[in-house]
Amino acid sequence: MDWKESAITIYKNRIFRIGAGILLAVLFFWWFLKPKPITVETGFVAKGTYEQIVEEDGVTRVKDRFTLYSPVNGVLQRVHKHVGEPVQKGETVAIINWDYDRKIQAPVSGTVLTIHRESAGPISIGAPILDIGDTSRLEIACELLTQDSVEVRPGNPVIIEGWGGDPISGKVRLIEPAAFTKVSSLGVEEQRVRVIIDFDPPSQIGDSFQVKTKITAFQKENSLLLPTAALFRDQKDWAVYRVQKGKAKKTIVKIEAKSGKWSLLTEGLQDGDEVVLYPTEEIKEGARVK
């Protein structure tokens, strides 16, 4: 009996055919019912410079703003200055009729910023008349949450954006020592601290312009950077799902600092490791991902 006859004999065997059918059915159902790979977004651990960035809106203001008040009860003559006009130190900017004409003079050279009272008429002692300041000497005041302010130090570099032009460099000059309560747009009371930033303003920026500030509170070169979106809590630890041979492997990691897009990684992964971003509850240890 040659091999062809042996093969025909085996094929005609009823038990063999039943077994082969069962095997094919099992293979079919295994393939059909096996878990499908979960589609995920992934990122990579990379080496680079870590920067702890604190972002907040700010407002420009003249460093030295002088408000001129009425020194007496009298009658104010009409103020002929206008907002934006330059004034020189010692120049008369307002006159009040008292027992004699009392001249109000500019204490510094600068620009008229605000006119509180323009029309002629009776005026009381202490009433504001106008504000004067040097618009070439501006600073930025931004109000940080107290938990963010503890990371900031005088001298920290700042990038100023959102004013309508190219980014400008600045530097933190002062963190005020006392916080204050501010109600957010959502109606939540927040404790905030005012931070003052020095910068060299372009001519297009004036007083009370809104800007966006990015304060570099901490910087570390040649560091392992992990996408922050990969992190999730595993009890008291931070963890990620590392992609290894198409499967998700839960890995405990140690993080020194977190800031927006990147976190400073100290232990658990290596440069080039692939991790799952925005992990959901659907992903478990050993789950197939693509």
TrEMBL record:
Record Gene3D superfamilies: 2.40.420.20, 2.40.50.100
Pfam families: Biotin_lipoyl (PF00364), YknX_C (PF25989)
Protein name: Secretion protein HlyD
A GO cellular component entry from the record: efflux pump complex
Keywords: Membrane, Transmembrane, Transmembrane helix
Listed PANTHER family: HLYD FAMILY OF SECRETION PROTEINS, MULTIDRUG RESISTANCE PROTEIN MDTA
Record domain Lipoyl-binding: where: 72-132
Domain YknX-like C-terminal permuted SH3-like: 225-290
Gene Ontology terms for molecular function: efflux transmembrane transporter activity
Transmembrane portions of the chain: 15-33
